[in-house]
Amino acid sequence: MYLDKNVGRKKIEGLYHYFLKNIPLIKNIHKVKEIKSIWKVENLQLLENSIEIIDNDYSVQEGKSKYRRHLVRERDSKIIKLAKIKFKKEIGKLYCEVCGFDFEKTYGKIGTDFIEGHHNIGVSELKEDQKTRIEDISLVCSNCHKMLHRRKPWLTVNELKAIIN
């Protein structure tokens, strides 16, 4: 695998020009989050453009243990369980509220009652003692969940529905 030596410089120049063009908008924190989201996509595109040859024998070393210490905001998994129970009692089965994907229908018994819970209010937006209600949870498949979190600010369930319909 051969990488272009100027990839880092290109990334910095691209970001620098983006900031220059959008300086009046950067005062808004959501705009900064959007720029970070765009940066991730540009980062991948720059890497793709810089790879000249991909050797099938290329490998990386993984699995190294690291000690990390940081502050995290906690979620209570009970609210997801309650949202699933309520949804199943009302609808009869669990499926993605965005695309309609049904894990049990596709995967059989192993997919029974499998669905991810998406918090419509981001953990970073919560106050210290704010309560999360069942109505604040959407049940979504893994792909839709990743797409909801693809950019910042996050897409809403309705925005993602509009994209795929």
Write structural notes for this entry:
The protein folds into two domains: 44 residues; 87 residues. Helices cover 44% and strands 5% of the residues. The chain has six helices and two strands, in the order H-H-H-H-E-E-H-H. It has a two-stranded antiparallel sheet. It is extended.
Computed Rg: 21 Å
- Name the shape in a single word: extended
Kindly report how far apart the N and C termini lie: 40 Å
Percent helix, as a range, is 40-55%
- How many helical stretches? 6
What is the total number of structural domains? Answer: 2
Structure at a glance:
InterPro entries: HNH (IPR002711). The protein contains six helices and two strands.
For the structure shown, list the relevant keywords.
single chain; 165 residues; mainly alpha; 2 domains; two-stranded antiparallel sheet; extended; disordered N terminus; endonuclease
Topology:
Layout: H1 7-22, H2 29-50, H3 78-91, H4 103-107, E1 116-119, E2 137-140, H5 142-148, H6 157-164
Antiparallel strand pairs: 1-2
Helix pairs in contact: 1-2
Protein name: HNH endonuclease
InterPro entries: HNH
Pfam families: HNH (PF01844)
